[in-house]
Amino acid sequence: MSIFSPAGLNISAKIRQLLPAQPCVLCGAMSHHALWCEACDAALPYHDMPHCPLCALPTPQGETCGHCLKKPPAFDRAVAAFSYRFPLDKLIQAMKYGEQLNLSSIFAEKLLQRMDTAHLPDCILPMPLHPAKLGRRGFNQSQLLAARLAKDLGIPLLTHACQRLRDTPSQSSLPWKARTSNVRGAFQCDTDLSGLHIALVDDVLTTGASLNALSLAARKRGAAEISVWVVARTLPHGR
After folding, report:
1. For 27, which DSSP code?
2. In whole angstroms, how large is the CA radius of gyration of the chain?
């Protein structure tokens, strides 16, 4: 039975009720629901508005946005579970910088709910960290997300297919216009991806510079189709 079927979801709900209640990470209320309670879950900024199928930015009727029509990204589509707004932004920061690694599982679960399971990739690749940054942080949050997605979907995880060649400054620390040059040529893929549909996994999509640069490296190794899966999509100011 598929975990995406109504019966499977009902069984999951019943199992949750048998588990001990725990404090919601957002409001502190005791909950059987998950790391956060049902009320907080309903208030989270899910990315459910009509949006561009390529970059996931909002568009009036879900059409391709003007920027992607003028300059399409190197990837074919982007899927986001949430919009990068409060309190979701604080939860992602808690995972990355507060070592709240258990959040990666529920983020992956929410991302799974957005998937087109009729068009899954052949393999999954996490956004790589430079070894120096991996040593400083101690973990790669994108790899944690990708590992959970690969396990639940039964798709191969290619952890070492691509590498980050330079220990670049964090994209979030740079002005938007500087982000493309910061990651230009920063990635290399050593695995033959000829003819494959691959999914690249990251936590946040903002300008798309990092994921575009990684996609270009994957294209050089033959990737035929590239999906981008992210926990959250940053929206323009005022959205």
Report:
1. T
2. 18
Q: Per residue in 51-72, pLDDT tens? A: 999 999 999 999 999 999 999 9
Across the chain, how many H-helices and E-strands are there? 9, 8
3-state secondary structure of 149: helix
How far apart, in whole angstroms, are the C-alpha atoms of residue 4 and residue 7? 8
| Residue whose tokens read 């690694």 | 101
Residue spans per domain, the chain: 1-43, 46-233
Nearest CA to 77 out of 51, 48, 53 is that of 53
User: What pTM, to 2 d.p., does this model score?
Assistant: 0.85
**What is the per-residue pLDDT across 153-178, written as a single tens digit (0 to 9) for each?**
999 999 999 998 877 656 665 565 66
Neighbouring CB atoms inside 10 A of 206's CB total 17
Answer whether 72's CB lies under 8 Å from 90's CB. no
User: Which helix H or strand E contains 138, and what residues bound it?
Assistant: none
Per the DSSP assignment, residues forming a β-bridge with 96 are none
Dihedral of the alpha carbons of 35, 87, 100, 178, in degrees to the nearest 10: 150
What pLDDT digit, counting tens, does each position of 97-121 carry? 888 898 999 999 999 999 988 899 9
The token pair at 202 is 């990251």
**Which CATH class for the 46-233 domain?**
alpha beta
The total of other beta-carbon atoms located within 10 Å of residue 94's CB is: 16
